[in-house]
Amino acid sequence: MATHPTQSDHQIVSITPLIKHLRAQAMDNANFQKVAIAEDIAAALGLIFENKLFTSQCSLFLGLLDVTRLDREPSVLSKCGEQMRQAAEEVDKKALRDLVRTRGRKEGNYRGGFCDLVGTGGDGHSTFNVSTTASILASTILMVGKHGNRASSSLSGSSDLLQAIRPRAPVIEAVTAKALPSVYETSNYAYIFAPNFHHGLKHVAPLRKELGIRTIFNLLGPLANPIEGNIEARIVGVAESDLGPIFAEALKQSGAKKTLVVCGQEQLDEISCAGKTDCWRLVERPNPAFRGPRDEEDEEFTTSDEEAEPRTLVEIEKLTLEPSDFGLQPHKLTEVLPGKRPEENAAMLMRLLRNELPTSDPVLEFVLMNTAALFVISGVCDADTSKMGHGDDGRVSQETGPGGLRWKEGVRRARWAVESGQALASLERFIEATDAATGQ
Q: What whole-number distance in Å separates Cα of residue 248 and Cα of residue 258?
């Protein structure tokens, strides 16, 4: 890659060879092949974050990724997600691991690690902020690191929702890489506001606005959580069913294990309350070829043998979910607040957390389903006993549904989070933690 000096005293890098290669692929329809250039594409993406590309080359590069469909190749998404995380503000991963050991509550097959519930957005439905609300409910039992940003295509993004909470909103700008461990010392929940960690996004925003088309950046959010290496389980919503297996494979290549990729059949990036949802589940299984200690408690067990077999293998399974699997009735998407502004959605969030909604309210049940799914995928619902706290009768639902999993038990736990007041308490602890982090 050639470099050119600029008036701003930093080097602009030319990616002409890569652009020529992408253009050749785009034109050669007869012999079109997805050549293994994922690392080159990721490197070019890194230059965008550093503001080291000519604007003209940057625009052409992003357009060619779309034309060649390379932005939908699992290896490209995986490498670009890795590049985006490497360019992010560094988080103290050891401090987070220590917090999991001291504060994470192991239960069932959940090991106490961090969890996330995130979507690509762009589904055009503009429903209520389900994943953000569900992540708050989930933090009553799980450690949650919710990665999010402002609205891009909808009226109310996750950060817009949180900042509209009244009478007191969390100071999400205070949750920096430096402050994150201190937030988790008192809170199971942290909102990881993308601009706080991904400073290179400031170079991307004007470019995306000028282009006016969807680019690879519309897909990278779920792959760019700065605490990726500490995440134990996640739900990832995609807005197109074709992206489901692509994201599942990209996440697998990125090292993810407990994961459920979901796409409502209305092309919704959530588990649908209206009908069926296509799902791709990453399942971690013991590797029979592993030669290390079978009962090793420390997940950081390593060996100097680079050819050694891993402890576990990850497989992708396809399944379909619908409201009845959760013991709930379907609700039309028009019943779950399409097109509402952040202030309205925040008011609904607080009504939900204060347990002011009817037990069969469409928004409530929409949130319960998605919270339940994260509980299930985390492994907490595999426990045959339950001691969540006040209001928990301990009656675990052992009924299984698609994938042999306890979806109804997930709903039982999600309802407890609301009815016990613990979801509201979890949000309030996060707000207090952000107040304390201000100025760090």
A: 11
